[in-house]
UniProtKB/TrEMBL annotation:
It is an enzyme of class 3 (hydrolase). Its EC number is 3.1.1.29. Its main location: cytoplasm. Transmembrane segments: none annotated. It comes from Corynebacterium striatum. This is Peptidyl-tRNA hydrolase. The record marks N20 as: Discriminates between blocked and unblocked aminoacyl-tRNA. The active site is at H30 (proton acceptor). InterPro entries: Pept_tRNA_hydro, Pept_tRNA_hydro_CS, Pept_tRNA_hydro_sf.
Length: 198
């Protein structure tokens, strides 16, 4: 598969799905950001392709006539910011248009919430992005995975298999919808719509 050239890419938003690369992690709670990206691309049939000189894969999409670039880092979660920040810089995309989709321990399973900024709550992918972008003020689509039972290890829990039930499928679709709404209507309007859903 031919690599994309960053110089040829035109995007107003970078939409980043967080996760870990490789089959071993594909169905884990930590990879729901990757899954939402797949859902976002399913409609158009676009495929993620490597970007020359960057450790990530990307696919250009149009949402409401706005060009966006959907991205998955090819590094492990705790280094997510390493390829994302330089690409955003190269494309001239400010942090407030780097939209990050990630798993969230502090939300019940399958609950979707949109927020801008705030702390990282121990999420290593977000920590890496904050460090490399130089700010916390980027928008996030948070996919609830709940907390592990008392006494369980958080790393084991987030790297454990997701409960892929009907509610989960709907949550991933809602996360993809949240991205479309943020790009087409803005954060406030997207929050009103998504947060009112059951």
């Amino acid at each position: 598969m031919a690599a994309l050239e960053a110089a040829d890419l035109d995007a107003e938003w970078l939409v980043v799905g967080l996760g870990n690369p490789g089959a071993k992690y594909a169905a884990t709670r930590h990879n729901v950001g990757y899954m939402a990206v797949d859902d976002l691309l399913a409609e158009s049939g676009e495929l993620l392709q490597p970007v020359a000189g960057h450790s990530l894969t990307a696919a250009p999409l149009n949402v409401a006539d706005t060009p966006i670039l959907v991205v998955r880092s090819a590094t492990f979660m705790n280094l997510s910011g390493d390829p994302i920040a330089p690409l955003a810089q190269q494309l001239g995309i400010p942090a407030e248009r780097v939209l990050v989709i990630h798993d969230e321990l502090d939300l019940p399973p399958n609950k979707i919430r949109i927020k801008v900024g705030g702390n990282e709550n121990g999420h290593n992918g977000l920590k890496s992005l904050t460090e490399r972008l130089g700010t916390r003020d980027y928008p996030r689509v948070r996919i609830g995975i709940g907390r592990p039972p008392k006494g369980s290890s958080i790393p084991d829990y987030v790297l454990g298999p997701i409960d892929a039930d009907v509610g989960f499928d709907a949550a991933i679709e809602t996360a993809a919808d949240a991205v479309r709404l943020i790009v087409s209507s803005g954060i406030q309007s997207a929050q009103n719509e998504i947060h009112s859903r059951k």
